[in-house]
Amino acid sequence: MSTDWQKYARPEDTRSRANKPEDNAIIQIIVREVCQIADQVVVHTPDPKTNNRAHTDVFGEKTPEARLKLSRISKIIIPQL
Predict the structure, then answer these.
(1) Can you tell me the distance from the alpha carbon of 42 to that of 35, in angstroms, rounded to the nearest whole number?
(2) Distance (Å, whole) CA 51 – CA 38
(3) In terms of C-beta density within 10 A (0-12 exposed, 13-18 middle, 19 or more buried), how is residue 15 classed?
(4) Backbone phi, then psi, for 48, in 5-degree steps?
(5) CA 14: distance to chain centroid?
(6) In a 3-state reduction of DSSP, which class is residue 28?
(7) What are 9-39's pLDDT values in tens digits?
């Protein structure tokens, strides 16, 4: 799962990078809570190709259980239009 680190990007910055920004919502998830979900690992992976120093990946299989837990710890910051 590709994400942006809040330290380096505002929600509006993250949304503007999408191919169709209006089709994307922006959510907030606390890293500590993600790491408490089995097999999920958060790694800061800046992308020099797109000049995105905020880029961060959440590695690990997104099983139905992991998806449910991720949805429960997510907070919508900017809703999808």
Answers:
(1) 7
(2) 31
(3) buried
(4) -65, -25
(5) 9
(6) strand
(7) 999 999 999 999 999 999 999 999 999 999 9
pLDDT digits (tens, 9 = 90+) for 49-73: 999 999 999 999 999 999 999 999 9
Q: Give me 13's structure tokens.
A: 């910055």
Strand partners, 26: 78
Look at residue 6 and give its three-state secondary structure: coil
E-strand spans in 20-74?
26-28, 41-44, 55-59
Alpha-helical (H) ranges within the chain are: 11-16, 31-35, 64-72
Separation between Cα atoms, residue 42 and residue 37, nearest integer Å:
11
Question: pTM here?
Answer: 0.89
Would you kindly state where each structural domain of the chain is located, as residue ranges?
A: 2-78
